[in-house]
Amino acid sequence: MLSTKKRHLILFLLGIFLLAAIVISGYLGKYPIQFEEYMSTILSRVFPAHFEATPEVSTILFKIRWPRIILAVLIGAGLSMSGATYQALFQNPMLSQDILGASQGAAFGAALGLFFNQSYEVVVLFSFVLGLGAVLLVLGLNRLIKSQSKLNMILIGMMVGSLFSSAVSFLKLIGDPTNTLPAITYWLMGSLSSVKMQDVYFAAPLILLGMLPIYFLRWQLNVMSLGEVEALSLGINVKVVRLILIASATLITATAVSISGLIGWVGLVIPHFARLLLGANYRYTIPATAFCGGVFLLIVDDFARLLTTSEIPIGILTAFIGAPVFIFLVAKNSRQLGRD
Amino acid sequence: MLEVENLSVSYGKRKILHDINFSLSGGQSVCLLGKNGVGKTTLFRSLLNTLSYSGKVLIDENDSQKLSRNQLAQLLSYIPQNKGNTVDYSVFEMILMGTTPQLKAHRQPGEKERAQAQAAIDLLKINYLKESLFSELSGGEQQLVIIARSVAQQAKIILMDEPCANLDFGNQVLVLEMIRYLAAQGYLIFQSTHDPNHALQYADRVLIMEKGRLTAAGYPQKILTGQRLTTLYNTPIEVVELSIDGEKRFVCLAKKGTNHVGNL
């Protein structure tokens, strides 16, 4: 077991790593910028007296690259945290918003909003309501069939997920092929290519709003992961805490899906990676999950925009990384899954 | 310390518990005996207030239904059946979770809580396990850790649902001795068990449940007679007295008997 000091050190290093990744990502891009120009433009924001900003660099950084970087970090951190939350709440390490059907529910909600040409606020609201609906549907069905195995919940989640995916397909089918259809299709593949500063102002507070309860209730999350009866006997008001945490995790998922479409696998894989680094205690694993998720999605997004001349949707890349890791996790957990 | 008055529980139309009445004081180890499905776990769940019941449960003269989850957890702790937990917490973290009822919801355990957990570890003398991973311990050691968590919870009443299920003989003795030790420290330990020998040798009091009713209560040597055990478990049983190292001990054994499959 790691000592508390070592854990704090690892968290500190992860924070430094995230910061470095942010600075480097801002420098990388199709439009070449001199490194000195780059640094002085950034620093001019902090110390305007000592450094001078170059106007065109300023425009590229703060209008184009910056919003994208901020959202990649926030969405990566948020999706990972909400994945970890679902895993702890349902005592099932193989869960995430994608497997529970929450993402697909949120995607259907958002697609519905796009289909009716609604404003951002309405798109996110639809997305949140249907995402929450999907989770509650999975929980309800799980209870209804008195499921005893962790595998069943995964199967129910996949069923609910594919139901909502079909609903999205139906919207695409009846959508207007000149504008609605391409909008939904490209957005669904998962991409951060079109984000603007306006998206940041809108999405960042919502994602942070979802992250706060999870961060503050992370000790309770430990206790909840022991199971309902034990959590109750340890004095936790299970119903209330569970509802708060599910709502928070789903709010993050819905906001992320509304902005960037379906970016799969992050919520499943990153919490495992954080646990490998720091152990099971969510007191440390939740912040570690956020840092790792932020770094991961930021780096993947750098590849998405730089690897080829045209953008690769980021969801495709995360799937390429996530799917093999998932098989590894299945192998590692195969013995646990059959048990209750 | 723990009083139960007219406790009844129904699931739909089916009545699981019928008018249970008993009262237990601190500083003793109590065994609850009964066949599978007579409602032992249901009784524990209602004491924990995790299902709806009629009647009254009084803990230190407080009506348990009027207590908040937090307050109840500071009076009563619960050790579920060992189900081979798959979580990878360290032993210390596991015990630290016992301090949760005293924490505000958004707080993390600090110095005071760590000291409390350490005190529980010292009381059970399991310092050597502190740094291990919970999932890598033997069943008996896991049970000791969960008992330490209950001690850290600082509740004076501990409910245990078959604490010796799935344990080998050595580990059973380990856990039972610990229960006796805690009872001597003033705790009320209320456990359900399937082995009447545990009750005969380790309990100060015994409660017997049949079909959702409490049918006998008292000192183990007095009420656990061969005849009663025979009717309780529906198989011929005899209680014998032994003297080991000059100490009188009671043991029960199943007779080779009429109920054997071959004789049907």
From TrEMBL, chain B:
Domain of life (superkingdom): Bacteria
Pfam families according to UniProt: ABC_tran
Signal peptide residues on this chain, from the entry's feature table: none
Key words of the record: ATP-binding, Nucleotide-binding, Transport
GO molecular function term, any single one: ATP binding
PROSITE patterns xrefs: ABC_TRANSPORTER_1 (PS00211), ABC_TRANSPORTER_2 (PS50893)
The keyword Glycoprotein appears for this protein: no
ABC transporter domain location: 2-236
InterPro entries (UniProt xref): AAA+_ATPase (IPR003593), ABC_transporter-like_ATP-bd (IPR003439), ABC_transporter-like_CS (IPR017871), Metal_Ion_Import_ABC (IPR050153), P-loop_NTPase (IPR027417)
Identification of the protein by name: ABC transporter domain-containing protein
